[in-house]
Each structure stands twice: as structure tokens, then as C-alpha cells.
């Protein structure tokens, strides 16, 4: 009982009376890097969050757009644009005057960890030939940015294996590495 009271008391002194968010991690697709976390409360509606990020070796910076937010994710793509770098992000819960400890993501390297979408595939058949067109995924870019170079295909040196199944002969033909050129739509 005493220890419980004491820790509550210490919590009040520190101002950190809330449990921290958990499961703080980056989810990333095509180099769009979004921090996600789990609310410490069942009733998520009354909870606010504040997010900071840092480049490995530097100090924490506020993510201005993610101060006192109610959603449980925060897009940090602009802050993690250098895909070869290593990043951390952390989040705390805020409710009125009280707040939680920070909880931190593990070290995140965009190039090493992002997931790449499948290409879109278009097939155009004529009597004696077929043309297969792949459109590789586009790199994430913020709304007001014009297309960025290099493309995902260049960054990851993406190669695609193509196989064609012939329904009549029931045979599959495999093409070896097909190197795509990036294509703006
Ligand atoms: C951070 O989250 C993990 C689970 O993802 C949890 O085990 C840990 O206790 C949390 N840290 C704090 C300070 O609450
Ligand atoms: C990549 O996709 C897998 C499978 O859906 C998922 O488990 C993983 O968390 C994703 N990684 C990132 C960094 O988004
Ligand atoms: C977030 O909320 C706290 C406490 O309510 C307040 O002091 C702080 O100024 C707010 N920050 C922003 C960026 O709105
Ligand atoms: C394809 O074959 C059809 C019927 O055999 C023929 O009418 C048509 O002209 C051919 N098209 C081309 C582009 O060769
Ligand atoms: C792609 O093709 C190459 C060469 O034919 C082969 O070595 C490789 O295993 C294939 N990869 C997959 C994922 O099928």
C-alpha cells in the first residue's frame, strides 16, 4: 500500500501520471514513413499525444504538426527524407496538465525497412505479340513537391522477374531480370 501511494505521489511530482503509449514503431511503404503507437487507455477519445523525432546522433526535435494530436499515428516522411539515415521517434500521452513518460521507437532506417508495393502490370496482346508494361511504385512525395529523383527503382535497383503462362501449351516461360525504367504518369 505504501509503495503504491508513494509511486502515485512521485508520479504527481513528476507530472507524469499517465501510462505511456506502447508499440511505438514506424510503418513504411514506398518510403512514406509513418509513426504508429497504441493508446495506453481503453477510452482513446480523451487522450492527446505529442511526437518528437531525431536523427541518430542529434537531439530531439518537436514534430510541429503532431503536438497535442488525438490520432495514434504521425507522418514523419518529411523529417526522415534522407533514406540512408537512421532515425528515432518518441511519443508521450498528454491529458490536461498531466502527461506520460516518452516511449520510443527502435532505430529506423528507411531504405533498409520500407516495404515496396508491387508494380502495376498492363498486358496488350496483338495477333502475334504481347507487350507487358510495368509501372513501378512511386516514391512518396509531399503534395507540393514535384517528382523526386532518384526513383524507387533507382534507389533499390529493383528488378522484376516475369513469367508468362501459356494456357494452350500449359507451359510457363520465364524472363530473366527485367530492369524497369522509371516512368512518370
Ligand atoms: C513502451 O512500450 C513497450 C511495448 O511496446 C512497453 O513494454 C514499455 O513498457 C513502454 N515504455 C513505457 C515507458 O511505458
Ligand atoms: C512491412 O510489411 C510487413 C508485412 O505486412 C509488416 O509486418 C512490416 O511491419 C512492414 N514494415 C514496415 C517498416 O512498414
Ligand atoms: C499542448 O497542450 C498543452 C497542455 O494543454 C499546452 O500547454 C501546449 O501549449 C499545447 N501545445 C500545442 C502545440 O498546442
Ligand atoms: C489479327 O487477326 C485477325 C483475324 O485473324 C485479322 O482480321 C486482323 O487483321 C489481325 N490483326 C493484326 C493487327 O494483324
Ligand atoms: C528471378 O530470376 C532469377 C534468374 O532467372 C532467379 O535466379 C531468381 O531466383 C528469381 N527470383 C524469384 C523471386 O523468382
From TrEMBL:
Fibronectin type-III domain mapped to chain residues: 20-113
PROSITE patterns in alphabetical order: FN3
GO cellular component: plasma membrane
Signal sequence coordinates: 1-19
Source species, domain of life: Eukaryota
One Pfam family this sequence matches: Tissue_fac
Keywords linked to the UniProt accession: Disulfide bond, Receptor, Signal
InterPro entries in the cross-refs: FN3_dom, FN3_sf, Ig-like_fold, Interferon/interleukin_rcp_dom, Type-II_Cytokine-TF_Rcpt
GO molecular function, one term: cytokine receptor activity
Protein family membership: Belongs to the type II cytokine receptor family.
Protein name: Fibronectin type-III domain-containing protein
Organism whose genome encodes this protein: Callorhinchus milii
Amino acid at each position: 500500500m505504501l509503495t503504491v501511494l508513494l509511486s502515485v505521489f512521485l508520479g504527481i511530482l513528476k507530472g507524469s501520471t499517465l501510462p505511456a503509449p506502447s508499440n511505438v514503431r514506424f510503418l513504411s511503404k514506398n518510403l512514406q514513413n509513418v509513426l504508429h503507437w497504441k493508446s495506453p487507455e481503453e477510452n482513446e477519445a480523451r487522450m492527446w499525444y505529442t511526437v518528437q523525432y531525431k536523427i541518430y546522433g542529434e537531439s530531439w526535435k518537436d514534430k510541429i504538426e503532431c503536438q497535442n494530436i488525438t490520432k495514434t499515428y504521425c507522418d514523419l516522411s518529411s523529417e526522415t527524407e534522407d533514406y540512408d539515415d537512421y532515425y528515432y521517434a518518441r511519443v508521450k500521452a498528454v491529458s490536461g496538465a498531466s502527461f506520460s513518460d516518452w516511449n520510443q521507437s527502435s532505430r529506423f532506417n528507411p531504405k533498409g525497412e520500407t516495404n515496396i508495393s508491387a508494380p502495376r502490370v498492363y498486358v496488350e496482346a496483338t495477333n502475334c505479340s504481347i507487350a507487358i508494361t510495368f509501372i513501378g511504385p512511386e516514391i512518396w512525395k509531399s503534395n507540393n513537391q514535384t517528382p523526386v529523383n532518384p526513383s524507387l527503382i533507382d534507389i533499390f535497383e529493383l528488378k522484376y522477374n516475369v513469367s508468362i503462362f501459356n494456357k494452350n501449351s500449359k507451359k510457363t516461360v520465364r524472363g530473366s531480370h527485367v530492369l524497369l525504367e522509371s516512368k512518370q504518369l
